[in-house]
Specification:
With 248 residues, the chain is an alpha/beta fold. It has helices at residues 17-27, 47-54, 80-85, 96-102, 106-118, 131-135, 139-150, 156-160, 180-197, 200-205, 219-223, 241-247, and strands at 5-10, 36-42, 59-63, 90-93, 122-127, 163-166, 207-211, 230-233. It has a single domain (5-247), classed as Alpha-Beta Barrel (TIM Barrel). The protein has an 8-stranded parallel beta barrel, surrounded by 5 helices. Helix 1 packs parallel to helix 2. The longest helix has 18 residues, at 180-197. The two termini are 20 Å apart. Bound molecules: 1,3-dihydroxyacetonephosphate. Residues 10, 95, 167, 172-173, 211-214, 232-236 line the site of 1,3-dihydroxyacetonephosphate. 1,3-dihydroxyacetonephosphate (13P) is lined by residues 10, 95, 167, 172-173, 211-214, 232-236.
């Protein structure tokens, strides 16, 4: 089965609304590639201006987080309905920065995933190990646990539409990319985990991205691997390099 590649930018806490519109304009001629799903996951306050700036283009709109309740007294949070109404299609959940700095647990991520699926979003579920975990040889055990908890209560049909982003924490923003073999090994392992949880068809359909210092130079090799279906890009998403990644 051939899976459509997905290249998503995670802008993190960068770009004011006016800067965001400027960036969309700069990238517009560089990111046209009908063979790839291109997504900008942007800070909440940039969602509306970016939606307007990408209107009519091939770029899809994404958010960086969501809360798992429908509405109510959750100061500072954003509900699925708010994102839907604003035109968001993709939502990143479980990023290691959210887990590390804001204490998100696997259980929170499971609730968020179920809620996003209920509302018809395309979730991007992040997972990944720390350097310590890699060095102690428990990478795949750790990631299997993250995936198994995140997908509790998710049906096979729903799982097919989920994107999983494998992001080794030690490779994020460090310039230290996982080797192609390391990235492929884990992405393949994730596909096997999905096969074990569901079936061959679900494992063949689900898209798995690599993220962590992916850039214009190393993207071609990573994206050529059989189990790497795209990239979740941080730093390079804020530069014309993003266009190079989309084209490669
Ligand atoms: P960098 O590409 O800056 O390493 O960030 C990766 C990432 O965290 C994307 O979600």
């Amino acid at each position: 089965m051939s899976r459509k590649k997905i290249i998503a930018g995670n802008w993190k806490m960068n770009k004011t609304p006016s800067e965001a519109v400027e960036l969309v304009k700069t990238l517009a001629p560089l990111v046209q590639n009908p063979e790839v799903d291109v997504v900008y996951c942007v800070p909440a306050i940039d969602i509306i201006p970016v939606r307007d700036a990408i209107a009519g283009s091939n770029v899809h709109l994404g958010a960086e987080n969501v809360y798992f309740e429908e509405s109510g007294a959750f100061t500072g949070e954003i509900s699925p309905a708010m994102l839907k109404d604003a035109g968001v299609e993709y939502v990143i959940i479980g990023h290691s920065e959210r887990r590390g700095y804001f204490g998100e647990t696997d259980q929170d991520i499971n609730k968020k995933l179920l809620k996003l699926l209920e509302h018809g979003f395309n979730p991007i579920v992040c997972c990944g190990e720390s350097l310590e975990q890699r060095e102690s040889g428990i990478t795949m055990d750790w990631i299997n646990m993250q995936i198994k908890i995140a997908f509790q209560g998710v049906t096979a049909d729903q799982a097919k539409g989920v994107v999983i982003a494998y992001e080794p924490i030690w490779a994020i923003g460090t310039g230290k990319t996982a080797t192609t073999a390391q990235a492929e090994e884990v992405c393949k392992g994730i596909r096997e985990t999905i096969c074990g949880l569901y079936d061959e068809a679900t494992a063949a359909a689900i898209r798995i991205q690599y993220g962590g210092s992916m850039n214009a130079k190393n993207c071609a090799e990573l994206l050529a691997e059989p189990d790497i279906d795209g990239g979740l890009i941080g730093g390079a998403a804020l530069k014309p390099d993003f266009g190079t990644i989309v084209k490669c």
